[in-house]
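Deliverable D2.4 — example input (structure tokens):
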């Protein structure tokens, strides 16, 4: 039996690679619709708040990445302000954590309404959602 190192390109040419989406990598999945982006953001926000994970810099960075696409959906500068705060290095100040939590909580109903509007209309979003 040949070792992995012994396999050359010619020997592996017939082997099909598994698609990235089959492995569950989010970047390999189909692009999300505007409504799906809003729903995904809502789920991510609730999960992070439920788990009290906003004190962790890496968790905040992941949540910032989820919110990043929202900057183009007509929510004004609020998503960008949230993203900037989420990307603050550890340790995050208690006042900033409180501000962040409150702003995330007030954004959730707007995201839910936007997701419903996007899925209902299947059209371009209004010029400004807020």
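Example output (designed residues):
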């Amino acid at each position: 039996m040949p070792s992995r190192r012994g396999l050359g390109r010619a020997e592996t040419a017939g082997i099909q690679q598994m698609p990235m989406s089959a492995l569950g990598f989010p970047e390999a999945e189909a692009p999300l619709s505007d409504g799906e982006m809003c729903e995904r953001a809502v789920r991510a926000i609730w999960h992070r708040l439920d788990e009290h994970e906003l004190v962790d810099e890496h968790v905040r960075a992941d949540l910032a990445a989820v919110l990043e696409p929202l900057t183009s959906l007509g929510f004004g500068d609020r998503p960008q302000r949230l993203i900037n705060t989420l990307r603050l290095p550890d340790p995050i100040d208690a006042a900033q954590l409180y501000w962040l939590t409150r702003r995330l909580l007030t954004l959730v109903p707007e995201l839910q309404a936007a997701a419903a509007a996007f899925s209902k209309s299947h059209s371009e979003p209004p010029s400004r959602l807020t």
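Confidence is low (pLDDT under 50) at residues 1-25.
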